[in-house]
Amino acid sequence: MSIRNRAKYGAEAFGEFAGNLPQPFPRTMGANCLTYLKEVVASGLQCDMVGRFEAAFAKEMGVKHCIGTPGCTAALNILTAALDMQPGDEIIVSPITDYGTVMGLLKENFIPVFPDTEPGTPLISARTIAPHISTRTRAILAVHITGSICDMDPIRALGKKRGLTVIEDVCQAAFGTYKGRLAGTLGDVAAFSFDSEKTLGSDVGGCAITNDDALAEQIRFIGQSRGGQMVKGLGRVHAANGYALRMTQSTAAITLAQLEIIRPAVAHIDRMIRLITDKLADIPGIIPLSIPDYMEVYSCWMAGFRIDPHAFQCDAESFARQVADAGLTGAGLGKYYLMPAALPFLTDKAEKRIFPFSKPPASYTYHYGADTCPNAHNFLTHFIRWTTFCEKYQPEHCDRVAQIVAAVADQNRV
Ligand SMILES: Cc1ncc(COP(=O)(O)O)c(C=O)c1O
């Protein structure tokens, strides 16, 4: 058997990083972490820590329902499973995202359709989504990537007009705001991640939030009660092929304590990422992520910039390696985020018309590849991200980032 170089996650993925810029690990932990964990143990596992976390997070978001899960991948899996959808139905999904965004809907045999991003941005818009709506489209899944929030009001209006559920993936923009409203409250339902490197970093964990009572109930029924219904005189009847994807009590304890310290941390992140953005914008040939006017709080755990390919002799890969060697730890390309090109199994299934790409249930022939989303492809070809940006940055670290990038830029100018 060949030994694979398996992907690493959480603190393990950051193990080899060093240097004089702050690293996310060890994470800053909320003062009440141990108190809440002890409560779980002292109660003999009877205390409802998950319920407490869910109520606190729902209150913080200003929504009616929060459903704690083992992660965002799980949250998106069970919330899409809870929608009124059949195999072969389509969900329009941002093309630049993490695999966790699409994994669940693929497991449900729904078909992802990737519209392009707006030029020069990693974000989809109502304009790029609209031409992809078919008779089989049931939902739009908008991802707020690297803290950049999609222009959600037009997307919501489009969803409403065409009878589509609007879902937000808020893993990379937790507590960011859009026109005075929190990311995650801008569609019908949203999913969050509390994985250890995320803004609200717990051990693992995630949740779904919504104001829709019926959808919240269905998410719990399908996603957590395994589709099991109690029938008098019999016991459980499994009315649906469900899941048991619940948040654990210990995860809830840590996440609740982390929630108590999140607002000042995010306010600090916002200040630091704006400072870095301004400094990078001053370097010829460097294009920081633009901050749309509708965003007040810019919350991210991954930072990045693009290089103008005409300004430098080297490509983005070489540029990324040089900034990483010069101390910008975690710097690399984000090419693997181009979902239409990053999932060979999906391309293969679609090409060979393997279920659900067979007809029926699919209604037409699908093709996946970088050519389907030229703006997204172009964006990621020149985009360099670093995953070690965190709330520990101070202004001197922002200076250091800009110095590193400026020095590499100067060494490679045409
Ligand atoms: C945009 C996005 N969606 C989904 C996920 C998956 O989250 P989780 O690891 O909590 O399942 C991630 C993780 O990095 C992400 O960045």
Structure notes:
By secondary structure, the chain is of the alpha/beta class. It has a domain at 33-260: Type I PLP-dependent aspartate aminotransferase-like (Major domain) (Aspartate Aminotransferase, domain 2, 3-Layer(aba) Sandwich). The chain has 14 helices and 15 strands. The strands form four sheets. It has a seven-stranded mixed sheet with strand order 1-9-8-5-4-2-3, with helices on both faces. It has a four-stranded antiparallel sheet with strand order 12-13-15-14. Helix 9 runs parallel beside helix 14 (395-411). The model has no long low-confidence stretch (mean pLDDT 96). Pyridoxal-5'-phosphate (PLP) binds at residues 71-73, 97-98, 100-101, 143, 169, 171-172, 193, 195, 206.
Helix and strand content put the structural class at alpha/beta
The CATH topology annotation of the domain at 33-260 reads as Aspartate Aminotransferase, domain 2
CATH domain class name of the domain at 33-260: Alpha Beta
Arithmetic mean pLDDT: 96
Specify the biggest β-sheet: 7 strands, mixed
Q: Calculate Rg over CA atoms.
A: 22 Å
> Which molecules other than protein and nucleic acid are bound?
pyridoxal-5'-phosphate
Strand content: 5-15%
> Which stretches are poorly predicted, pLDDT < 50 over at least 5 residues?
none
Shape: globular
**CATH H-tier superfamily of the domain at 33-260:** Type I PLP-dependent aspartate aminotransferase-like (Major domain)
Percent range of helical residues: 25-40%
Cα end-to-end separation: 47 Å
Q: Work out the helix count.
A: 14
